[in-house]
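Hello Y.,

Per our agreement to keep a running log of every chain we model this quarter, I'm adding this entry. I've kept the format consistent with earlier entries: sequence first, then predicted structure.
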Amino acid sequence: MLRATGRSRRLRALRSLPALLLAVAVTSSACAAPVRVTTPSPTPAGTRVASPTAATTPARTATSTATPAVASATPPRGSIAVPTPRSDVPLAGRTVPLGQPVLLRPTIEVQVAGTQATLILESVTDDSRCPVDVTCVRAGSVTATFNLWDGKQASRDEVTLRGVEPARVVLGGLELTLLAIEPEPHSEREIKPFDYRAQVVIDRPVVRSLTGIDGTVTLGPNCPVVRADQPCPDRPYEATLVVRNAAGVVVARVQSNAAGRFSVDVPAGRYVIDPLSPGPGRYPAAGPAEVTVPAAARASVTVAFDTGIR
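Predicted structure for the entry above:
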């Protein structure tokens, strides 16, 4: 009986031996796996660059290089950035052409093409223009001083821009039209004298008729009460004017500019300037102005519009 029992135990042990060997084999393979991972791979270095870790590195580098570019695009607070000239208004070189807009820099002398004249933008002063980031009642103005040498004598004059209307002046036999002053003012930035640029067109003056009417249009009063210590002068006004001759026939229709000025060429004689109002009984309004143009001369007249402020 005892022998049978011992034999049975040995048989059961032999039957369980394959399972035990399989378990040992599985355990050995599981333990050997970490050893293979830590073993250096014989893969070439070029192949490792294409691994996911290496691929993410250039992406981070591109992001970091883009950040300074964005930062440099926005100038620091209070800094002054000279505006980039438009493609159709180049910065003037040593010679400037006739009839084409250019940008002049202060104190830089340029030669006017086709002439003996040299031109200098001396300075930009009295800049009271409304800052671009502020809402103003008035647009303000800015003045530029120019000096032209025609080979015999110097001509110097100031040109004032009011609003966006160009201003003209004749210097040494040439007509200079001031289109704009750059940059536009900003409430938190100071424009230094040498940062200004003047957009100008230089051309030969247009021959005007000996007879005609040169006038100014004003608008006022602009304040309910005018005091000696707080003057409130009339301001320039843009208006449409109809010019009629002595027979009542319309001979011209003219528009005053932002500076309130207008000019019309007409023969000598008597004329009536009829300002056009917004409507009957509406302000601003102005009555007709009579003017006599003498022979071989030009007449001056002022047309005053009433605001209705009392």
